[in-house]
């Protein structure tokens, strides 16, 4: 008889676990990538297939990213970015959820203070650049793991997205000066 009760609880736990795993709770790095692309082009009407193609995501990944972003209060019902909520999350929470640490020197695509818009404000020494690793990159610097593996390729297709990702990387890995400048740029771009 006790085996029956244990089985019933085990079945309930498995069903409950599966329900939780299917729910849109929590933010993933690809969700931020999607939100940044939407923020970069606020007036553009996106189809899931086009957004996925640009970002290197499948349609289902884009759909789930939009669902999680809406569930987290970063996107409204019309798929418009909630600008003040996104600014608050990027500035105050992103570095704790998706931290980055500088890695070894390598050739790559500039990011953080080594890429626009911060590169216009911050002059870095030759040994003090940050890059996403890429053998065809134009700059040598300390490597930073991109927010999502397809982010560097997407950034090379869309210069505005590249700027957004660089600002986000400055928040994830930068020094106080870099973070303060990135915060100002993000607030200005989001109008908050």
Characterise this structure.
The chain is mainly alpha-helical. It folds into two domains: 2-96, Arc Repressor Mutant, subunit A, CATH 1.10.10; 100-190, no CATH class. Helix content is 55%, strand content 8%. The protein has helices at residues 2-22, 29-40, 48-55, 59-71, 83-92, 94-97, 151-157, 159-173, 176-190, and strands at 105-111, 130-133, 139-143. The protein starts with a helix and ends with a helix. The model is unreliable at 1-13 and 15-21 (pLDDT under 50).
Gist of the model:
The protein has helices at residues 2-22, 29-40, 48-55, 59-71, 83-92, 94-97, 151-157, 159-173, 176-190, and strands spanning 105-111, 130-133, 139-143.
Give descriptors for this structure.
192 residues; Arc Repressor Mutant, subunit A; mainly alpha; 2 domains; 55% helix; globular
What's the overall average pLDDT, rounded?
88
Which structural category fits the helices and strands? Answer: mainly alpha
Count of DSSP-assigned helices: 9
CATH C-level category of the largest domain: Mainly Alpha
CATH topology of the largest domain: Arc Repressor Mutant, subunit A
Order of helices and strands: HHHHHHEEEHHH
Shape-level CATH architecture of the largest domain: Orthogonal Bundle
The profile of the biggest β sheet is: 3 strands, mixed
């Amino acid at each position: 008889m006790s085996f029956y009760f244990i089985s019933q609880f085990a079945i309930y736990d498995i069903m409950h676990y599966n329900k939780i795993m299917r729910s849109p709770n929590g933010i993933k790095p690809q969700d931020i990538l999607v939100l940044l692309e939407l923020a970069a082009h606020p007036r553009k009407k996106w189809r899931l297939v086009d957004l996925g193609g640009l970002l290197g995501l499948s349609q289902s990944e884009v759909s789930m990213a939009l669902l999680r972003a809406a569930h987290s209060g970063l996107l409204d019902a019309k798929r418009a970015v909630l600008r003040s909520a996104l600014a608050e999350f990027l500035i105050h929470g992103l570095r704790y959820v998706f931290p980055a640490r500088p890695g070894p020197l390598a050739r790559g695509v500039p990011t953080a203070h080594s890429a626009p818009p911060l590169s216009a404000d911050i002059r870095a020494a030759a040994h003090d650049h940050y890059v996403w690793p890429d053998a065809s990159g134009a700059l040598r610097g300390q490597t930073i793991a991109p927010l999502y593996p397809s982010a560097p390729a997407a950034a090379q297709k869309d210069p505005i997205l590249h700027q957004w990702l660089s600002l986000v990387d400055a928040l994830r890995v930068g020094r106080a000066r870099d973070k303060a400048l990135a915060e100002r740029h993000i607030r200005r771009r989001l109008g908050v």
